[in-house]
Structure formats: structure tokens, C-alpha cells
Design brief:
heterodimer; A: alpha+beta; five-stranded mixed beta sheet; 32% helix; globular; B: alpha+beta; six-stranded mixed beta sheet; 3 helices; 21% helix
């Protein structure tokens, strides 16, 4: 299938706030357009004997939807976030400890999984956990014409034939995790990865900028 | 994870201070912490900050069959989630004593006080009524979750708008917000809870509204 060469690398306006809750060790809120997520992070802390790993920290991710109880969809999102975090955290520095990441969906207007990933990274930074690299999430959608749209809204997601979310690391810009829905060709997949890698640059710049602003007063 | 226990000298200090009508953060015995209420993007979403305690409430609605004993009335459902984010002592999925107590309090506060007109939620008597579901998520536990939850629940209910419905014979049409403006719920009064813990035998009030 012919893919349109014109791609739209425009991300919605994003905003972030760190350290907004007093009880968790690290907390952050990430907003992408209208999609908003709040994250709280506890760790390294005491772990139950049944869950402890002798040489690494045990990472637990919980996603709470806004309405109703967590279902299978939240479980699959939790797995995506957990795999990404485990790949970037230096968990062998905290053996027999637990790291708990709790994400609360505040509003879902499309690109939810990438917003969850971005918020998780900001919370891990706020908690001061050692990581080998930062990561960010980017969602892109392929609509019926074959055009690739980054950071789709809920309305755009309904109309397109495929939604792809990638977690990209900050050092080599490689794909850490991918979650896809719908049908697309191999060529389209490679194009989407390239588009997302480009878009991730903006997000990492934003991370750097917000952390710089936060610590500019103290340093 | 268990909550860090209070040491004996901390407990004695607290009780002694309360006997002398003093509080750790400098408040008077009847003072409330600052309350801040903010609203989210969609109808029925609100955040309440009671000092550092933070709570979020979301109201949603759905058409369901009514209860057999009350075919003319809508259904009100309250659910307060003690999220593990609020405190490391809260566990996901476990029905702790505090969670049961808060749920029961919320139900008594709103359902028994009849603050919402449930008869206006009826669409077709005996077949279809609106079920109003209030989900309260605790985000940060710094004391007095009950008051924060009740303020969040009633504010969210006042903020919420349900879709407009029209009935033509047997057909029920539910209009989207673009077609017809959504309608607010009819609320008679706003019940708010106020916590009053007692220490030893003296009665100390957390605040009054």
C-alpha cells in the first residue's frame, strides 16, 4: 500500500509538574493536550518475602482508570510500562527492595499509553532512582489514506486503521517497547518508527528543560 | 507495606499538646486546613485539596434497569478507592477496614440524606433509569480523607451534566452533548461531613462547616 510521504510531526502541547504529592517518594503529573496522568512512586522500600528477588529490586506497576475497577486493558498497559522501566532502571543497585509505581488516569483524550510512559519517567526522575537512560513514549496513528499522525486525539484514533506506541530511549534513540493495534505493512512500521524517533527529540528536550527550571533556583 | 508506627514519645507529646489545646501545625482546635477545589476537563471531575490531602472525584452515568423495589427511582452508586498512591499502607484490591468505613460513610451521607432527586433520573418507569456512579480516588493521604471525599463527591455531583433523553412511544433517544446541551442533576442540598476524633475522654473537633 502506498504511504503518503508527507508526515505530520506535530505533538500537542505538553506540560509537567513534579513533586506535587507529599506522601510518595516521587510524583509527577504529565499533560499532553487534554490527556492527563498523575503518577506516584514509592521506593526503594521493604518488599514481601514472596515477591523478593535476591539480586534486583522488584518493580510493581499499577494503573488506575478513572471510572470503574482496573480491567484487562489496564493490565496490558501495566505490562508495557513495567517492561520499559525495568529496561532502564539500574535495579541491581537495590536488591531485595520494592519499587512501586502507581499511575492514575486523570483524562483520556488519545495517546494514553505514551502519556503514561512519559509521566512514569518523570516520576522516576523525581524519586531520584538510578537509571541507565531516560525513556519517552510516542504514539502515532495511520489513517485510511496512509498518512502518519503523531500524538492522535481520541477522535483521530477512532478513525484510523492502526495505532502504534513506541517507548524510545534517550541515549541511542532505539525502540525499547512497542505496542500496536490494527493492520499495517512492514514499510509503514519502519516509517512510524522513524517518525517517532524524530518526535522523541522534542520530548527529551522538554525533560531537560523542565528539570533545569526546577533545579535552577537551588543550584 | 505497613505504615510507620508512632513512637511512644511522639504519642505522649501529641496527647499532652492536645490537652493544652495546642496542635502540631499551629492551628486552633476548631480550625480547618485550607481547602482548594479545582475542576477537570470534563463534566463531573473535580480535585479537592484539604491541606496536603488530595482527592479526585469523577461522576459518570449509564442507563440501567431499576431496582425491583423502586421502579421509579434512579440508582446512586458510590465507590471510594484507597489508591496505593495515597499511602504505602494501602494495598490495591484489599478491602481494608478504613475503606469499608469510608464507603459506608459516603453512602449514608448522600443516599440516606436524599440530597439528590432520584425520581428525576427515571426515564421509563420499571425499565430504564439513570445510574449515577461516583468514583472517588484518594491521591495523597495526609489525614481526614472522609471530609475531603465528601466535599469532592458533592462538588463533582453539582458539576456533572447528564445527557438529554427524549422518549417517543417505545424508542428512547439519548442525545450527545453536540446535539443537545446536557442537563445538571437536581440536588436539594449539600451534605458535608465533619470529622471529630476524641482523644482519651476529651472531645476535640477537627473543624466545622
Amino acid at each position: 500500500m502506498e504511504v503518503c510521504s508527507s508526515t505530520d510531526i506535530s505533538l500537542r502541547e505538553f506540560g509537567c509538574e513534579q513533586n506535587l504529592l507529599s506522601r510518595p517518594d516521587g510524583s509527577a503529573s504529565f499533560v499532553q493536550g487534554d490527556t492527563s496522568v498523575l503518577v506516584g512512586m514509592y521506593g526503594p522500600a521493604e518488599v514481601k518475602v514472596s515477591k523478593e528477588i535476591y539480586d534486583r529490586a522488584t518493580l510493581e506497576v499499577l494503573i488506575q482508570p478513572k471510572v470503574g475497577l482496573p480491567s484487562v486493558r489496564e493490565r496490558s498497559q501495566e505490562q508495557c510500562v513495567r517492561e520499559t522501566c525495568e529496561a532502564s532502571l539500574l535495579s541491581f543497585l537495590h536488591p531485595r527492595s520494592s519499587l512501586t509505581l502507581i499511575l492514575q488516569v486523570v483524562h483520556d483524550d488519545g495517546s494514553l499509553l505514551s502519556c503514561l510512559l512519559n509521566a512514569a519517567c518523570m516520576a522516576l526522575m523525581d524519586a531520584g532512582l538510578p537509571m541507565s537512560c531516560l525513556f519517552c513514549g510516542v504514539t502515532c496513528a495511520i489513517n485510511s489514506d496512509g498518512q502518519i499522525i503523531t500524538d492522535p486525539t481520541a477522535a483521530q484514533e477512532k478513525e484510523c486503521r492502526a495505532i502504534l506506541t513506541f517507548a524510545i530511549d534517550s541515549t541511542d534513540h532505539k525502540v525499547m517497547m512497542s505496542s500496536t493495534q490494527g493492520s499495517f505493512s512492514v514499510h509503514e512500521l519502519q516509517q512510524c518508527i522513524a517518525v517517532c524517533q524524530n518526535a522523541s527529540e522534542k520530548i527529551f528536550e522538554f525533560y531537560r528543560d523542565s528539570v533545569q527550571r526546577r533545579y535552577s533556583k537551588t543550584l | 507495606m505497613k505504615d510507620t508506627p508512632l513512637s511512644n514519645c511522639e504519642r505522649d507529646f501529641l496527647l499532652k499538646a492536645i490537652e493544652e489545646k495546642k496542635r502540631l501545625d499551629g492551628r486552633q482546635t476548631y480550625d480547618y486546613r485550607n481547602i482548594k477545589i479545582t475542576f477537570g476537563t470534563d463534566y463531573g471531575c473535580c480535585f479537592v485539596d484539604l491541606g496536603k490531602t488530595r482527592v479526585m472525584a469523577q461522576v459518570s452515568c449509564e442507563l440501567v434497569a431499576p431496582k425491583e423495589t423502586r421502579p421509579n427511582e434512579g440508582v446512586l452508586f458510590f465507590n471510594i478507592e484507597l489508591s496505593p498512591m495515597a499511602s504505602p499502607a494501602f494495598e490495591q484490591g484489599r478491602q481494608s477496614e478504613l475503606s469499608v468505613k469510608l464507603n459506608r460513610q459516603l453512602e449514608r451521607c448522600f443516599r440516606n440524606s436524599k440530597c439528590i432527586d432520584t425520581e428525576s433520573l427515571c426515564v421509563v418507569s420499571g425499565e430504564k433509569v439513570w445510574q449515577i456512579r461516583v468514583d472517588v480516588h484518594t491521591l495523597n493521604h495526609d489525614g481526614n480523607l472522609m471530609d475531603a471525599a465528601s466535599i469532592a463527591a458533592i462538588t463533582a455531583l453539582c458539576h456533572f451534566r447528564r445527557p438529554d433523553v427524549s422518549i417517543q412511544g417505545e424508542d428512547i433517544t439519548v442525545y450527545t452533548p453536540e446535539e443537545r446541551d446536557p442537563i445538571p442533576l437536581s440536588i436539594y442540598h449539600m451534605p458535608i461531613s465533619s470529622a471529630s476524633p476524641s482523644f482519651n475522654r476529651e472531645r476535640i473537633c477537627c473543624g466545622s462547616m
